[in-house]
Every structure is written in structure tokens, then in C-alpha cells.
Amino acid sequence: MRVYLQLAGIGVCLCSLAAHAQVRARQANDYSTGAGIGQCIAGGCEVFRGTILTDGAKPGEPVSIRVDEALYGMSAPPTTVALPYPGLEGGLRNLAYAWGGVQVARNVRVTVIITTQGGLMSGPGEPALVTSDERLGGVIRTLAEEAAQLDRSPELISGAVASLSTDPNPALAGLLFSRLAFRAIKQPELVGGLLIQMLPNRSVPPEELENIAIHLALTYALLSDDGKAAALRRFTDLGEQSDVPAAKAAYAGLAHIATHFPVRTTIPPATLMAIENNYRALIHKGSITRNKALEAGLGFKAE
Comparing C-alpha atoms, which of 109, 96, 97 is closest to residue 136? Predict the structure, then answer.
């Protein structure tokens, strides 16, 4: 009986770990979806819900989709849209990725994102994403509504970022990060302050912290003295933490800043020592690899 209970306990633990991994993967996917939509919106895109009218797809021939509901960027939505469908050609434009295995059959409901300006992976009028997944479609709908609201009232972005700490929403976090990243030059003080709030944040997957840190570091040169001090303080605080993703993100941000600005003398010696000790400890544990730019900029030694 004891062996049975032990095995049952192991099974529960494994199921719990699997469930946790699924949640983490979903959070990461939601964040990526939000960030991707934010980038697409910055470059120009349209989002709609529709119904496939074509019964069966032929390589290289467009698929007709009825526009049932415009979600973003379509002031005068057409009745139908003929979407390019992947053929046998290669190249940078990846229509196969955009369609993502959607079954092309009459009456299949889809959510569609179309680029209006074109980019690396798609040209004007080509799909950036076509999905029949209802959950993903719901996420995209919510993000499109949020983006439209922020277009109408840009000042709401501060409240939206603040909500991420109390009401975790990785998809919204991804959308907001992209919007901030693309407007840093015009509003550096606002962007810097909000990126600080996202570093770290309950809505941001740990693996995305380093990217946010780098964008904050890239904004550093545009900040006021108070803004620079706040950014540097956030990085130094995180650099002392045992939380690996947060500390690693801080080291990336500090490395960039210290490479271009003489900040070493502005950091209290005790703080520098604490960061260096934590940096070395994480290296010795195998949690992180050496950051030579950080070592050169702040005079750290890995050994």
C-alpha cells in the first residue's frame, strides 16, 4: 500500500509539473501573440473575423473569405477578401507559416491579420496570420479592441501597464511592450518609466525580461537625469537578486549602458560589490554564462 501511495504521489507530481509547463507555454504563446500584433499594428495591419468561402485550397491560388466583422484598421471593410495562399515557391514571404495549417473548407470561421505595408515575411495585402483556433481568435479580438482604444486615447497606456501587475495578462503585456518599443524616440520618459514597471512583472514570461531590459537600456540615452537614475536603479536592484531571469536581464541592461556611459562611478561601491558577488555566484552555479561586456563596463571579475 505504501509503494502504491508513493507511486500515486509521483503521478500527481508529474501531472502537476505537466500542467505547470502547459500554463507556462500558453503564457509565452500569448505574450508572443500580443507582441506580434503590436509590431504588425506599428507597421500597418487590418484584423477581421470571417468565413472561408472557398471549398478546398489549391497551391498558389487565392482563398476567398467573407468579412463578417472588422476588428481593427478597416474603416470601410469589404464584403470579401481574396487572400494569397501558399504555393510551391520559397523566398522570404512565408505564407505557409501565416496560414498555419488552417483547413480551407467552406464555412470554416477564421480570424485574419493582413499587413497593409508589408514586411520581411509578408507583402502588402498578404496575411500575417490566419487561424481557426477559437481561443487564439478570442485573444486576437481582445488585443485588437485594446489597440483601437489606445489609438483613440494614447494616455490610457499608463493604466494598462499598471494593470499588468494586479491582473496578469501576458497577451496584453506583449502588445503594450511592442507599442512602447516603437514609440521610444517620441516619448522616451514615458516609455522608460513604463518599461521599468514591466521589469519584472507577473504578466511577462521570464524569458522575455532580457528583451525588455535591452529596450530600456536603448532608451537610456534619451532619458532625463531622473529617468536615467530610475533605470539604473532598477537594473542594480535586479542585479542583486537570486532570480535568474531577472538578474540576467539586469546584467544585459547594465552591460549595454556601461559600454556607452561611465556609470560605474555613479553606483555605490557596496551595490557594485553585491551585484558582482551575485553575478559570480550565478556563473559558478551554471545558471548564467559570462557577460564580458558587463565585466568590462563595471570592472567585474568572473573568478
Answer: 109
- The span from the CA of 238 to the CA of 243, in Å, is 8
What one-character DSSP code corresponds to residue 100?
Answer: T
First vs last C-alpha separation in the chain: 51
DSSP secondary-structure letter at 62? -
At 48, is the secondary structure helix, strand, or coil? strand
Q: How many CB atoms lie within 10 A of CB 34?
A: 28
Contacts 24+ apart (CB under 8 A), 52-59: 52/104, 52/105, 52/106, 52/107, 52/108, 52/109, 52/110, 53/80, 53/106, 54/104, 54/106, 55/105, 55/106, 56/104, 56/105, 57/85, 57/104, 58/85, 59/85, 59/86, 59/87, 59/88
How far is residue 158's CA from residue 94's CA, in Å, rounded to a whole number? 35
What pLDDT digit, counting tens, does each position of 114-144 carry? 998 865 556 788 899 999 999 999 999 999 9
Q: What is the CA radius of gyration of the chain?
A: 23
> Closest by alpha carbon to 180, among 30, 35, 71, 73?
35
Q: Which three cell numbers stand for residue 176?
A: 503594450
- Per DSSP bridges, beta strands 127-131 and 45-52 are unpaired
Q: What are the extents of the domains in the chain?
A: 26-168, 183-298
CA–CA dist 173, 171 (Å, integer) = 5
Instruction: Report d(CA 126, CA 42) in Å as an integer.
Output: 16
User: Under CATH, what is the fold of the domain 26-168?
Assistant: OB fold (Dihydrolipoamide Acetyltransferase, E2P) (2.40.50)
Locus of grid cell 511592442:
178
Is pLDDT of 91 > 90? no
Question: What's the pLDDT tens digit per position in 179-230?
Answer: 999 877 789 999 999 999 999 999 999 999 999 999 999 999 999 999 999 9
Pure H helices in the chain: 2-43, 95-99, 134-152, 157-166, 170-181, 188-197, 209-219, 225-239, 244-260, 269-284, 292-298
